[in-house]
Amino acid sequence: MRVWVTTMLALLAAAPGFAQxxxxxxxxxxxLRQIYALYARAQKDEKLQNQATTKLxxxxxxxxxxxxxxxxxxxxxxxxxxxxxxxxxxDGQDFELSDVKVGATQISGDKASVTASFVNMKTPCVNVYYxxxxxxxxxVDDIETRPKGQKPTRIxxxxxxxxxx
Length: 165
Hints:
The protein is α+β, with helices and mostly antiparallel strands. Helix content is 41%, strand content 25%.
């Protein structure tokens, strides 16, 4: 009995920290900070450049967005220029990132958004990531890029509207 009580007390003592770690790992803002941190490290370490790609977002896409990415990838595999011809994470083809800020997750039911602002190649940019909860996990459902002085682009809409698939 004493062993059981001791074990339970140890588990309860550890529970708040465990819950905090799980909440942070599930938080889309924490995940996005990790992605932008990888891009920042890739600027200085050429070996990391193959890891800092839109594939990170594609792997965490909602079912609907994943289907659109898959269709675009099939088009690109034929050697064609398809809907996505730039890295939407950094809103460009090349990157020299600075002033990266990832805001807090804004949650409304099973939907959430996170805003990332940064400067890429001396151009201020803002990306808004929209998430949906699928099977208890936050999945990227769309991304809106807002480069300064240009019209915002919704990635899911661009992928849906592309006609040459």
